[in-house]
Amino acid sequence: MTGSEGLTTPAGAGSGETKPGGPRALGSGDAAGVEVKADTGKPSLARSLHSRHITMISIGGAVGAGLFVGSGVSIQQAGPGILIAYALTAAIVILIMRMLAEMSITRPDTGAFAVYARMAFGRWAGFASGWIYWVGWPLGMCVESIAIARIVHGWIPALPVWLTALVMIGIVTAVNLTSVRAYGEMEFWVVWIKVAVIALFIAVGLVAVAGLLPGTDAPGVGNLVDHGGFLPMGLSGVVIATSGAMFSFSGTEIVTIAAGETEDAAAAIRKSTRTILFRVTVFYLGSLAVIVLLLPWNSAAVGESPFAATLGHLGLHGASTVLNVVLFAAMLSTMNSQVYASSRMLFALARDHDAPSVLARTSRRGVPHTAILLTVALTVLCLLFQVFHPTTAFSRLVDITGDTVYVTWIGIAAAHLVLGRHDRADGRRPASGAGVWLFPWLTWATLIALLALYAVMIVLPESRADAVLALALTVATALGGLWLQRKRPTVL
Question: Is the overall model pTM greater than 0.85, yes or no?
Answer without folding.
Answer: no
